[in-house]
Structures are given as structure tokens and as C-alpha cells.
């Protein structure tokens, strides 16, 4: 897997945790972990943006974060949900995957198309 995709996927996963941390953190330690997660997540997104098309990187980052946060709230924090929300999350994930599939891969470091 390219380093750009690793960075954006891991950054998106960290986004799930830091956004939840902003809402649910109660101690100084939890807030410190949230701040570290924010810094690492944004740093990974910057690295990913230098290696992938910005639109693809941002769509993956936000898609992973949005779907993960919503599902996490439903599963771990007992947030109310309905079938339409699940359908929209599935559409979001399929849209991000579709965007990746129809995009031409370009190594932005060398500007060579593949």
C-alpha cells in the first residue's frame, strides 16, 4: 500500500478518536490524548496530501471520519439512529471507494501517471 493511502486512512481513524475525545473527554489526560491525536491526524493528512490528489485524500479522510464517528456513537455511546442513517453511511463509503476507483493515480512527487 502506498504511504499516502496509509497516512490518510490512519489519519481518518485517528479523527474518529479525537472528535469523540472532544465530546467525551473528562480528564486532563484524556484531553491531552485528544490533542496528540489531532496533531498526528492532521500531520498524516498533510503527508497524504503531498502524495495523493488532494480531493481524493480529503474525501477519504472525511469519509472515514464521518462514518466512523457516526457508527461509534451508535455502537459505543448508544446514540439514537434509524435505517436511513445506515443507508447514508453506506452510500458515503461507496462514494469514497467509487471516487478512488475512477481517479487516475498520479505520483505527485514525480508527476508520473500510472
Q: Would you kindly provide a written description of the structure presented here, covering whatever features stand out?
A:
With 114 residues, this protein is mainly alpha-helical. The protein is built from four helices and two strands, in the order ααααββ. It has helices at 3-24, 28-51, 54-76, 83-102; strands at 106-107, 112-113. It has a two-stranded antiparallel ribbon. Strand 1 (106-107) and strand 2 form a beta hairpin. Helix 1 (3-24) packs across helix 3 (54-76). The protein starts with a helix and ends with a strand. The mean pLDDT is 87.
Average pLDDT confidence is 87
Strands ordered across the widest β-sheet:
1-2
Return the string of H and E elements: HHHHEE
Q: What is the global morphology? A: flat
The helix count comes to 4
DSSP strand tally: 2
Query: Which sheet architecture does the biggest sheet show?
Result: 2 strands, antiparallel
Task: State the end-to-end distance.
Answer: 15 Å
Helical content class: over 70%
Low-confidence stretches: none
Strand content: under 5%
* Structural category: mainly alpha
Which value, in Å, is the CA radius of gyration?
16 Å
Amino acid at each position: 500500500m502506498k504511504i499516502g493511502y496509509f497516512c490518510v486512512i490512519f489519519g481518518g481513524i485517528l479523527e474518529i478518536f479525537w472528535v469523540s475525545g472532544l465530546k467525551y473527554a473528562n480528564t486532563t489526560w484524556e484531553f491531552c490524548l485528544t490533542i496528540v491525536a489531532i496533531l498526528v491526524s492532521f500531520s498524516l493528512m498533510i503527508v497524504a496530501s503531498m502524495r495523493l490528489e488532494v480531493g481524493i485524500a480529503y474525501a477519504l479522510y472525511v469519509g472515514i471520519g464521518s462514518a466512523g464517528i457516526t457508527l461509534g456513537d451508535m455502537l459505543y455511546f448508544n446514540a439514537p439512529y434509524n435505517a436511513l442513517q445506515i443507508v447514508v453511511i453506506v452510500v458515503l463509503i461507496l462514494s469514497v471507494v467509487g471516487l478512488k476507483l475512477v481517479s487516475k493515480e498520479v505520483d505527485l512527487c514525480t508527476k508520473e501517471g500510472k
